[in-house]
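ok trying again, last paste got cut off:
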Amino acid sequence: MNNIAFESNHLKNRGLSIGGSDIGAILGLSKFRTPLEVWMEKTGKEVRQLDSLPLRFGSFAEEFVASEYARATGFELLHDESIYIHPTHPMMSAHVDRFILGDGLNKPAARLLECKTANPFARGEWGEPGTDQVPMSYLCQCIWYLAITGIKQCDLAVLFGNSDFRIYEIARDLELEALVIEKALHFWNDYVLKDIPPPALTEGDYQALFKKSDPSKTIEANPKTVELIRQLQTLSAQSGDVDEQITKIKQHIMNQMKEAEVLNYQGNVIATWKAPKPSFRLDSKRLEVEEKEVFERFKMPVQNSRRLVIKSFDA
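nice, full thing came through this time. structure:
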């Protein structure tokens, strides 16, 4: 790929850069990860082995989707497993699924190709084939790759189930590109490099951020938290679509408590946030009965997540 003027390098440590699969999460557009989860990975606080059936199938199906794209368009593809780095911002990296080769003696890369598989029930999130109406996290991923490579178009080929194959076309948009890069630089410089967590967005974020509690720490609830707990008690007794309101209130309470295990108000305990007693990975009843000594030697305590409990109180 001598015709493309940008640096290529093999990066094994995902913490060294922001990749295309990260940018949607950083912008709060991913259904699978939050900005805090990306931050924890980049700062080495938690490295998750991303392994699930959908991810494995997506990786397996990439070759098939690429071959279907080549069959449908007649274009020649290049599979280059290098990691490409932005010429100005070394924290921006791209692992492109395929390069689409153009005409001419050297066949320079004319477009990029991103390969996806999707649930057939998710068709409503996609527009007409040939447009750029794709889920925002995928759109930003393509914009990210175009910014790094300097190529003008990225085609996104997606297979829904095993019967619906579509091709979308994303053109380079310099205005959107600049906005995405600005947000990425803010995340990298203000959160990753300074080792300061971005705002938590979910209960899972708060569980990860304040995983360890201090049993000796009790704090006094502020008036806003007390009022929200009253609302929470009312909502919990209601039927209907109140889950989102309940979730937001719980997040506020977690944010005030942080490492504290007990929340007080006027001498009364109004909430606790503690981890339950540890469970054990070796919990086979048969093993415990038939090989009790072995069971006792090899059982391993597992620290469960903290559990937020709201207490009844009168104020």
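cool. The CA atoms of residues 231 and 237 lie 10 Å apart. Confidence is low (pLDDT under 50) at residues 1-12.
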